[in-house]
Amino acid sequence: MISERNEVKVFAPATLANLGCGYDVLGLAIHGPGDIIIIRKSPETTGITIKEITGDEGKLPLDASKNTASIAAQAVLTQLNLEGGFEMEIHKKMPFGSGLGSSAASAVGGAFAMNELLGSPLERMELLPAAMEGEASASKAWHADNVAPGLLGGVCLVRDNASLDVIPLPAPSNLWVTVLYDPKIEILTSEAREKVPTEVPTHTATTQAGHLAAFVSALYEENYDLLRRTMVDHIAEPGRRELIPKFAEYKERAEAAGAIAFGISGSGPSLFAISHGELSAHQIADTFKFDPIETYVSAINRQGVAVL
Ligand code: HSE
User: Fold this and answer.
1) What is the pLDDT of residue 139?
2) Catalytic residue check, 178
3) Is the CB of 146 under 6 A from ligand 1?
4) Is the model's pLDDT at 1 over the cut of 60?
5) Which residue among the candidates 89, 133, 135, 237 is catalytic per the annotation?
6) Residue 2: is its pLDDT beyond 70?
7) Angle 257-259-261 (CA atoms, 0-180°, nearest 5)?
8) Which fold has domain 7-169+303-307?
9) Does residue 198 carry a catalytic annotation?
């Protein structure tokens, strides 16, 4: 089972969770930001040792029992009933506390890299529990809406978080995303989750269920007009908007520039605009070129985590 390779380097992409209508159950992977994770065999040591983390401004733990990436990698070893000595490097090429699934990227990268180093004994879908274990250690909650698209690529629906029943959805090639990220705002997922009501009225639940079901249909049909009507969040966004002072202004400007949908990426502060076509996605980004924010324009990343 153990491969002949001594080292594996992978790239795990950033992801957008919730997508308006699917709080905790929808996500998609993008190109550009993400994590590079390296794992190499280290026969003279036991367990996983984190040798280096870059791009985190010293904020992430080097202690392998506390780091999302190493927890996920260790979970793969445990799942396979294997032991050994390994060194890990984590190079963050994305902001964290940004709503772009930073902890999920680390977890996905850690699990995937370990599996590759071991000769790929597990399928991507089989790595979900290990990646989730890493992600949950950071987010303190059990939702696979970042981990699933990071691992599988494309757009993913989590039918059931408890059992990690994940359903890949179509990823229309003309569906583009513009991400607006304000580095001055850092929102911890755990804090943003406190802004979401623990109970919602039945009419809110039914409205949201209607939107989510129609969203799935819109992806299958590549029906952008229907998509526009579905990516609406009545559950998480109302409480979370207040954490992002320019939410209303940016939404109005993005829609004026052609966005067919707009919302909070995951727990924020990043915001996303959905476009029909690359040109529109760049036009939206251009609208914000004089604002003190960063923008990413991307088609859907269908591949997910990949060996470099
Ligand atoms: N679904 C999660 C949330 C995603 O909105 O809290 C966090 O990245």
Assistant:
1) 82
2) no
3) yes
4) no
5) 135
6) no
7) 150
8) Ribosomal Protein S5; domain 2 (3.30.230)
9) no
